[in-house]
Design brief:
152 residues, alpha+beta, Cytidine Deaminase, domain 2, five-stranded mixed β-sheet
């Protein structure tokens, strides 16, 4: 049973906070021994399901992967291909709550997410469940290249 009644990009405040809490919870599982910068992401899909992911670093740095793509892979592997909203949180464990920054998705993740939305994907970048910035993906990735570019 999903906590989310939203099937489009109009989440109410409780749903936003639930999505952020899910991202904060999975952040604790991040594997970030090199940067110590732990990131968590939670994606709400149009079918009401939520998938989460954390960043996973690697001794060969380029082999690491971001939390946002980890969450997206979980969604895709479970059959959900339409993303409605994503919450992202990221900071080092020793950062006081008041000193947390906003960890926006990197460029690669913005492009990745763009594949699975029409641009209306809500992006919540948070310091806490009640302290967040909200954008749609189209504003974070203007003039994007996506599936429509390859249509005849
Ligand atoms: Zn990324």
């Amino acid at each position: 049973m999903s906590d989310f009644k939203s099937r489009n990009n109009t989440l109410d405040e409780t749903e936003v906070q639930t999505l952020i809490r899910t991202a904060m919870s999975v952040r604790d599982k991040a594997y970030a021994p090199y940067s110590e910068f732990k990131v968590g992401a939670a994606i709400l899909c149009s079918d009401g399901r939520v998938f989460s992911g954390c960043n996973v670093e690697n001794a060969a740095y380029g082999a690491g992967i971001c939390a946002e793509r980890g969450a997206g892979m979980q969604a895709l592997a479970s059959g959900s291909q339409e993303f409605t909203a994503i919450a992202v949180v990221g900071w080092k464990d020793d950062t006081d709550e008041g000193d947390r920054g906003l960890s926006y998705p990197c460029g690669i993740c913005r492009q990745f997410l763009n594949e699975f939305t029409d641009g209306s994907l809500r992006v919540y970048v948070a310091r806490s469940p009640s302290d967040y910035d909200e954008n749609d993906l189209a504003s974070l990735l203007p003039h994007s290249f996506g599936p429509k570019n390859l249509e005849d």
